[in-house]
Amino acid sequence: MHHHAHRHTHEHVHDIDWGALCSHLEREAELHTPALTQATTWLRDLLGGVSVGRVLDVGSGPGVVADLLADAFPGAEVVAVDQSPALLERARTRSSGRIATQQADLPDEFGRLGTADLIWSANAIHHLGDQQAALTALAASLRPGGLLAVAERGLPVRFLPRDIGLGRPGLQARLDAGNEDGFTAMRTELPGVDEVEDWPAMLARAGLVPTGTRTFLTDSPAPLGLPAREYLHTRLARQRDQFGEHLNDEDRATVEALLHADAPTSILWRPDAFYLTATTVHTARACTA
């Protein structure tokens, strides 16, 4: 499991070397920090008068959001939950001990999570075969009046103009299509029945009362700083490795030019690169006893 706002890696979750991806995941979450901070503030407002004693970040990755949750709920025990010991170790280091960590292989170990007043899960549920069963299990861990917040999908990352002066215009849209096909293939290989991804309806079927959906914008205009460029370079290289064979020769050549670290055409140097995406958060409450 992992956090990220839109890190759609298309391997099966158990086959991914999350430790090797750690710095990439951390950089991605840091790019989204202003939007994620707005999201945690919204969750704090939704919880209003509830005394929040325990918070879970399920699929926490390297712990960037767990840190933000600890900022938003300073009186709570915040627990980063992930299947990867390497990512949890990074979460511990990042937080200087402010957050607790718990290794759990989901969906088998939902029952080990304990109860919480707030459960956050970002781009993790879609790696589990039965998304409805996962939401129902998380709902069962909520204390009365508690809140479940699930960040899934939103809008894909935009980072290049339509015409970049290389190859056929519209490369970004074709990369998005490859990404969607890969996402669908990943879901198809997982056990369980796919449902229509109506997240508020799924939360309601989990026995919760939907309390709203909001989308938070991450908008980093050109010229980008180097950390964002390095993140995009890694992202593009992963896309090439995952579905590059589905691109035509011209698009593959364009991607290689964007990845060529020493060329002015590289995503590392070109002045027109930007970073724009949207993170959508669905929320629902457990009934008070």
Kindly describe this structure.
Helix 1 packs across helix 8. The longest helix is centred in the middle third of the chain and has 18 residues, at 171-188. Strands 1, 2, 3, 4, 5, 6, 7 and 8 form an eight-stranded mixed beta sheet that branches. The chain has one domain (13-285): 3-Layer(aba) Sandwich (Rossmann fold), CATH 3.40.50. The protein contains nine helices and eight strands. With 289 residues, the chain is an alpha/beta fold. Mean pLDDT is 91; it is low at 1-13. The radius of gyration is 19 Å and the shape is globular. The protein starts with 21 loop residues before the first helix and ends with a strand. The relative contact order is 0.17. Helix 4 (85-95) links the parallel strand 2 (77-82) and strand 3 (100-103). Helices cover 38% and strands 20% of the residues.
Features:
8 strands; Rossmann fold; globular; 289 residues; 9 helices; eight-stranded mixed sheet; alpha/beta; disordered N terminus
Gist?
The chain contains 9 helices and 8 strands.
The total strand number stands at 8
Please report which band the strand proportion falls in: under 5%, 5-15%, 15-25%, 25-35%, 35-45% or over 45%. Answer: 15-25%
Structural class given helices, strands, pairing? alpha/beta
Low-pLDDT stretches: 1-13
| Biggest sheet overview | 8 strands, mixed
* CATH architecture annotation name: 3-Layer(aba) Sandwich
Query: How much helix is in the residues?
Result: 25-40%
What number of structural domains do the residues give?
1
Gyration radius from CA atoms, angstroms:
19 Å
Ends apart, CA distance between termini? 31 Å
Order of helices and strands: HHEHEHEEHEEHHEHHE
Specify the number of helices.
9
Average pLDDT, to the nearest integer? 91
What is the fold-level CATH name, i.e. the topology?
A: Rossmann fold
CATH evolutionary superfamily: Vaccinia Virus protein VP39
The oligomeric state is single chain
Shape type: globular
Kindly provide the name of the CATH class: Alpha Beta
